[in-house]
Amino acid sequence: MAKIGIYGSSFDPITNVHLFTASTVASRCRLEKVIFLPCSSKRKDKKMNTDDEHRWNMLTMALEEEREREIVADSFEMEQDPWKITTYETMKHFKGQYPNDDVYFIMGADLLVDIGSGKWSNGEKLVEENKFIVMARDNIDMLRTISHSPILRNNDDGTTFHLIDKGLAMEISSSYIREEFSNGGEPKYLLPNSCYYYIKEHGLYED
């Protein structure tokens, strides 16, 4: 039985921190595969700064450089109706793709807070039926977050949450890189080389 991690984000753009995070989580949690899952630009609850084609192209270019572990991209959510798909349906899809494996949703502690406070559609079913790898964010106390949320606490069987509390809370974000491009900065070494030149070529994130 293998262990598969689903890493969802906008990847707008993908950064070296995303790659570092995926590699580190795979190593610490003994994952055989990490699947990068970009969300759709059609979502009404989250504004994208580039369309799906550009984000997908940059993601696949970045992962072509990854050789040490099986880290791949999947366009599943990009292809779905954004009003009919939630993380619950996404995880159901991937568990169907890997019926003999353990499938984990990789997320930051900030999302754990959101799920625990009832902000996610199908949040209780999501926690009840799935497993999660949760990375430290913004000094959030992950154990306290779980213990103070009925949704998280009452659906935790002891193996639901794998908490990673050291070494992954890094400040460089996609939004910071977008701001650097917009302000004429030079974020070349914060994202994969191929993606940097792709952004320059297509004039992405310009003010």
Characterization of the model:
This is Probable nicotinate-nucleotide adenylyltransferase. Pfam families: CTP_transf_like (PF01467). Its EC number is 2.7.7.18. Pathway: Cofactor biosynthesis; NAD(+) biosynthesis; deamido-NAD(+) from nicotinate D-ribonucleotide: step 1/1. Catalyzes the reversible adenylation of nicotinate mononucleotide (NaMN) to nicotinic acid adenine dinucleotide (NaAD). With 207 residues, the chain is an alpha/beta fold. It has a single domain, classed as HUPs (Rossmann fold, 3-Layer(aba) Sandwich), CATH 3.40.50.620. Helices cover 40% and strands 16% of the residues. Strands 3-2-1-4-5-6 form a 6-stranded parallel sheet, sandwiched between helices. Helix 2 packs antiparallel against helix 9. The longest helix has 14 residues. The radius of gyration is 17 Å and the shape is globular.
